[in-house]
Amino acid sequence: MNDKRHNPPRLAERILAHVASTTEPAALLGDLEEEFCRRAEMDSIKAAKAWYWQQIMRSIPPFTVNSTVWSMIMISNYIKVAIRNMTRHKTYTIINLAGLAIGIACSVLMLMWVADELSFDRFHSKSDRIYRLLVEPYQASGKPLAVSAPILAGKMQDEFPEVENAVRMRNSSTLLMSAGESKFYESSGILADPSFFEIFDFPFIKGDPATALTDLYSIVLTESLAEKYFGKENPIGKTVRINNKTDFLVTGVIADIPGNSHLRFGFVRPFDLLKEAGRDFEDWGAVSYHTYALLYENASPAAVDEKLIALINREEPDRTVNYYLQPLKETHLHSDFVFDNAVTGNILYVYIFSAGAIFILLIACINFMNLATARSGIRAREVGMRKVVGAARSDIIRQFFGESILASMIALAVAIALIQTTLPFFNELSGKELAFNLLATPQLAFGLLALTLVTGLISGSYPALFLSSFKPVKVLKGSRGSTGSGSKFRRVLVVLQFSLTIILIIGTMVVHQQLGHIRSRELGYDSDHIIVMPMRGEIRTQHETLKEELIKDPAILSVTAASSIPTNISISASSGTWEGKPEDVSVQIHINTVDYSYLETFKMEMASGEFFSKDRTTDADNFVVNEAAVAAMGLSDPIGAGFDILGSEESTIIGVVKDFNYESARTNIEPMVMVIADQWKRYVCVRINGNDISGAISTMESNWKDLAPAFPFEYSFLDERIDALYRAEQRMMTLFNYFTGLAMFIACLGLFGMASFTAERRTKEIGIRKALGASETDIVKLLSMEFSKLVLLANVIAWPVAWLAMNRWLQSFAYRVDLSIWVFAAAGAAAFAVAFLTVASQAIKAAVTRPVEALKYE
């Protein structure tokens, strides 16, 4: 090898001469490779090329080679070596790429979900200056209210110099809308002031936003709703009939509401329709409307809060109501209020998903680092030889970083394919409408590329630094002094990896347990076999007739009418008075107007006193309250106590019904009263025996058509409405299941590779042990024990972290499970069992190898 043909400087001169006469870099690289192959006289041509190439490149003065050519030569060399190592060790390459690809795909999907949650309402150009009015809770245990008095909007604009504009709005009840032959029930309407389109950016496709809501009987439709009723025709100037009696002129069509808007609606009508219906907009006690304020640039929200307090003290000194502003950008993730109009999320889920994405990506990176360091012995001689022929440590570091980044890029390509394939399924599970379009969203493409580069750098960091530190003399003698530290580091990584996995398992189990608890918790009433029919048209005035006809069917056990069903009692007031009420106390009380069969239909129980009875004519002026109301009012003996909330005189409490959940179990049971009053009733609820459901529904439909033929028959089961209360948690639970399963799979994938490599490295040792009489069971125990200890240590680390995280999540529920030790033990046992089986599969494979074959192994 000392022949002058292999002298690097002389070979460099020939290369430089060729560089001067060649303009095509690709041709140059091909010629260089051919020249090098011809001159190589080593047992391994590939190895000779790699080592000599480093030596040749270092012998060329940097200023004599074009920088582009130099970069291409080095990059080409790194890529060739990386590909060569990948193809030489296919099993480890597949494990690495699979783990990275799945990890990146999972992390990207989770972060896309997080980004969507954080993007709510950011599309409004004035979002930084838009605020919503809230009311502080009326009692210490209560929640703030997302409603306000309608008079406040005008007062703020007139008296507060910080307020540029304000808008009032209210959700519309379900309406029957018709245009031509199209007739549907619509529940997505709102009523709003004309300033609505000045404050919020809901772009008009047709019509003028400045005048769209100025006419009392005008209506603005979303694009999809306009197409639903008018097809491809221009809807401007056409009419929509509501509830078969009132025509509204279509004055505008807006783009469909973005999925990341806390306001969701299909049509808008003028807010003044409520005034036309007799609502008093000057009543400070009518705290049942939503108000948004647009502040001037650099205006102080805190100053507005102070002025709101002063305004209420001046106008309504007897009221203990305090208003304050909530930033629009916080509305989606930081709202847990009574009478909320927002599509709300939970900031805790954002934290959990963010942590989960990081955990899964770290688990995938740890796989790469573990396998790379474990294979350090195989590549130690390569590193040593490179250093002998002149490679600097920086060259080795660049090469290994290059290999890890190349692996990340390949994994990225696979991950993109996985994301595209699974995104529709993910959207269905999460209830989102996420899109993955790298060309349309360059920021997503750059973010994904950055994530991949970071993943590659993290994954290759330890292998690059660890392998590049090997001493050439020791390596070529067969000694690798750093192997011990590499082994220790691998153990640390395995512990970290399984700690993260166990945290995810515990989290998933607690979510399952909590959701099971709130779904199986006694609601305080029987929801089985109850059908709910919203009152429409003539049914509102003839519900007693409907009840009499329905009860004739033997499949129908009981019928009642009420203003609210037990899943949502939305009417409330703070004007309640009772015996001994302190002047400075105000309690927000929900009101449910019922009839005499309400208790029987829902199978509720009385705590004391009696429910309403037709035999007592005075009951129509009296009240039944729940236990929460008694506690909030501080009544020690409520039966017979004077009480009023509707302005009637000499009313009393005749009974106390046991508390029942009329909202999600996330919230405490609020004070509630029941009263006999026909004018507010909106639902007919029917209890059936369950033996002939279709027959009972047919009876209901037939009687409905007889009484209200112009209104389509509609119904729902109460159980479905209850399920809807927990839909968000149900979706989160399902997503946790999948992501935790994938995290476990990735962790076991790496553990499989580690166990396989360990068994391979100890093949001769196993052969000797078997030759000396060791049984297959002894071999399996030997190879499995080390990993089992690491998983046990991972449990010790994971348990306290999981306890802190899940305890905080459970605080968001009013009724929650206790964190029990068996959940942690079960999660630890599951992780241990899966890890043991993964390692044992490779240990058994090694244990059954014949000793003579093992002793021949090289």
What key phrases describe this protein's structure?
single chain, 858 residues, alpha+beta, 26 helices, 52% helix, elongated, disordered N terminus
Structural commentary:
The chain has 858 residues and is an alpha+beta fold. The longest helix is centred in the middle third of the chain and has 38 residues, at 393-430. Mean pLDDT is 81; it is low at 1-9, 15-30, 40-45 and 60-65. Strand 8 and strand 9 (246-254) form a beta hairpin. The radius of gyration is 36 Å and the shape is elongated. The chain contains 26 helices and 24 strands. The strands form 4 sheets. Strands 1, 2, 3, 4, 5, 6, 7, 8, 9, 10, 11 and 12 form a 12-stranded mixed beta sheet that branches. It has a 6-stranded mixed beta sheet with strand order 15-17-22-19-21-18. The chain has a 4-stranded antiparallel beta sheet with strand order 14-23-13-24.
CA radius of gyration is 36 Å
The largest sheet, given as strand count, sense and whether it forms a barrel, is: 12 strands, mixed
- The assigned structural class equals alpha+beta
Strand coverage percent:
5-15%
Q: Count the helices. How many? A: 26
Shape: elongated
Q: What percentage of residues falls in helices of 4 or more residues?
A: 40-55%
Mean pLDDT: 81
Annotate the secondary structure layout.
Blueprint: H1 8-21, H2 25-39, H3 45-59, H4 67-88, H5 90-118, E1 130-135, H6 151-159, E2 163-171, E3 175-179, E4 182-186, E5 189-192, H7 196-199, E6 204-207, E7 218-222, H8 223-230, E8 239-242, E9 246-254, E10 267-270, H9 273-276, E11 290-295, H10 301-315, E12 323-327, H11 347-374, H12 376-388, H13 393-430, H14 442-467, H15 472-476, H16 483-520, E13 530-534, H17 539-550, E14 556-562, E15 572-573, E16 577-578, E17 589-594, H18 598-602, E18 606-609, E19 623-626, H19 627-633, E20 643-644, E21 653-657, E22 672-676, E23 683-688, H20 693-707, E24 716-717, H21 718-725, H22 727-761, H23 763-771, H24 776-810, H25 821-847, H26 851-856
Parallel strand pairs: 5-10, 7-9, 17-22, 19-21
Antiparallel strand pairs: 1-11, 1-12, 2-5, 2-11, 3-4, 3-8, 6-9, 7-10, 8-9, 13-23, 13-24, 14-23, 15-17, 16-20, 18-21, 19-22
